[in-house]
Design a protein that fits this description.
single chain; mainly alpha; globular
């Protein structure tokens, strides 16, 4: 990433991007909203957000991510000079395979490579990424956008949830995946990434194929979540509930959702600023995690605004 690009987008004046509905980033965000919501509201994702994550499932989920990112980053390296991918090639900022390897070594021990396997739901996801990279490289940006932008958006909250629920060390062992060492301001970097995406010369037909591929990526993610949820039914393990409600628990009233309130608060709505504060301060666990929530708020709300 060129230094001048980072300086251009790493500003603190709160200015908004000028985005158009036909920009590739906006086209994908709008066209994958339903698939994104289905994955986000899956039982596994909601349990994770609440802190009801079993250690064994966390280990299996980390292993699944390792196989997905190994495939993705292998194909990214293969296609780093392809005109449909080169503009969003940020290996030092985004690549996750090494971080996931550190997490697996902590979770499984030094023999971790012999202890993990690619699960039944993860395997077709990995195979699809390899197919795209080798036969339809113009679609690879759909997988990159789906994975990395989501990880940058909610990663800090999920990191703290995992550390608290699984009693992981505060020094980062087991959650290296969520720490992007080379990205100091995720919101600014995501603006840069979107601007690079929107500079890609893409015709209408390819744009439609990219949208279809992004929805395929979300489908694969949901299938991995469903697999983990099913496995979890047979695992008895004490878990904590740290008390963050999910969208489906609002009794049909979206205004009660803290993430919706966060989005509205960031947009400048004073009513939701007050509501967000009341939601957090009325929850004992949220009081403990308030500092974490405030630090991650901008990043999480930014994903909703994509």
């Amino acid at each position: 990433m060129a230094a001048e690009d980072l300086l251009k987008y790493d500003d603190d004046d709160g200015s908004d991007e000028i985005l158009r509905p036909d920009d590739l980033s906006e086209y994908l965000a709008a066209g994958t909203k339903e698939a994104h919501d289905r994955a986000e509201n899956s039982p596994f994702a909601k349990d994770f957000l609440r802190g009801r994550i079993k250690r064994e499932l966390y280990k299996l989920g980390t292993a699944a991510l390792y196989y997905v990112y190994s495939a993705l980053e292998e194909e990214i390296e293969r296609n780093k000079d392809h005109p449909m991918f080169a503009p969003v090639y940020f290996p030092s900022e985004l690549h996750r395979q090494e971080a996931l390897a550190k997490d697996l070594e902590y979770l499984y021990g030094s023999d971790w490579k012999n202890l993990i396997t690619c699960s039944a739901a993860t395997r077709p996801y990995v195979e699809r990424i390899h197919h795209v990279g080798q036969h339809e490289p113009e679609l690879l940006v759909a997988h990159s956008w789906t994975r990395y932008m989501g990880d940058l958006s909610g990663g800090q909250i999920l990191k703290k949830v995992a550390q608290r629920a699984l009693k992981l060390p505060p020094t980062g062992e087991g959650v290296h995946f969520y720490h992007f060492e080379a990205i100091h301001k995720p919101t600014a970097f995501k603006r840069l990434y979107r601007s690079r995406m929107n500079e890609i010369d893409v015709d209408a037909e390819t744009k439609e194929r990219l949208l279809a591929e992004a929805n395929v990526a979300f489908k694969f993610n949901l299938e991995v979540f469903e697999e983990l949820q099913e496995i979890g039914k047979g695992i008895e393990e004490e878990v904590q509930d740290i008390g963050f409600p999910a969208h489906g628990d609002m009794g049909g009233d979206i205004s009660k959702c803290p993430y919706y309130a966060a989005k509205m608060a960031v947009s400048g709505n004073a009513v939701y600023v007050r509501q967000l504060a009341r939601t957090l301060l009325s929850n004992p666990a949220a009081q403990v995690l308030l500092a974490t929530w405030l630090a991650a708020l901008t990043g999480l709300a930014a994903w909703y605004l994509m």
